Amino acid sequence: MALRAVIPTNHFYHSFNKGAWAFTGAAAVAAYGRAVTISYDDALRERIQTHLDGHDRRVVTDPTKRHAAVAVVIVDSEVGEDRVDPAPVEDWIGGRPMPEPGLDGRMVDVSGGASFLLCRRTSRLSSHPAQWALPGGRLDPGETAIDAALRELDEEVGVSLSESAVLGLLDDYPTRSGYVITPVVMWGDGRLDLRPAPDEVVAAYRVGLHQLHREDSPRFVTIPESPRPVVQIPLGGDLIHAPTGAVLLQLRWLGLEGRHDPVDELEQPVFAWR
């Protein structure tokens, strides 16, 4: 698959990395290109919830696709607690080439302050093995998206939260592999004790929300297989693609910045189409 960098010019993307971003109150204030940790406090929780409450959520109804949900869990973390990647990265990568020079597939030095939980999926899974993902999976019969996200969070990383932890929902994202994913944003109330299920998750990470504001993030590339731009979120020593990358971008744009830009039209790389 050939990838080519593109600078978006249409109204859908034209303002993505402009100017400065800021938080008020006890949260962080930063100039563009200078990432600082974001305080994990009530002000941040209220800010995210207010933005979600004021959003006209995009719902995808497609009877040809199965419904799934992912948990976007906001937790606390400490700077420097992740200097060593807990996963056997060489085994997990399995010889696959990195997308570009300078990347090694490791997720280190990304923690600090308010964070979200990110999983490294095991290579033994039959569906989307060895990929970065948020805790989640398909809805069981009779489940809501919130029910499924809470259940999958418990099953995959050993974290049990109640429905009262839910702050709101991001937009549905339809995948090439036949799913409509509903992201459920939750407040984890502290660090949480992570216990990844070894059959599904190689390791779980606390990634600081400030990492979503990296100077090189987000990135968009073109591929010959689709007219839509492929989104890439640089994190640690790797690139996070859609659908996870699209969800994380909306977490930044809507949850943190209050922007209502859609992300459901952002493309996935071809390896994620199956």
Automatic annotation (TrEMBL):
<dbReference type="InterPro" id="IPR020084">
    <property type="entry name" value="NUDIX_hydrolase_CS"/>
</dbReference>
<keyword id="KW-0479">Metal-binding</keyword>
<comment type="similarity">
    <text>Belongs to the Nudix hydrolase family.</text>
</comment>
<dbReference type="Pfam" id="PF00293">
    <property type="entry name" value="NUDIX"/>
</dbReference>
<dbReference type="InterPro" id="IPR020476">
    <property type="entry name" value="Nudix_hydrolase"/>
</dbReference>
<dbReference type="InterPro" id="IPR000086">
    <property type="entry name" value="NUDIX_hydrolase_dom"/>
</dbReference>
<dbReference type="InterPro" id="IPR045121">
    <property type="entry name" value="CoAse"/>
</dbReference>
<protein>
    <submittedName>
        <fullName>8-oxo-dGTP pyrophosphatase MutT (NUDIX family)</fullName>
    </submittedName>
</protein>
<feature type="domain" description="Nudix hydrolase">
    <location>
        <begin position="65"/>
        <end position="231"/>
    </location>
</feature>
<keyword id="KW-0378">Hydrolase</keyword>
<dbReference type="InterPro" id="IPR015797">
    <property type="entry name" value="NUDIX_hydrolase-like_dom_sf"/>
</dbReference>
<keyword id="KW-0460">Magnesium</keyword>
<keyword id="KW-0464">Manganese</keyword>
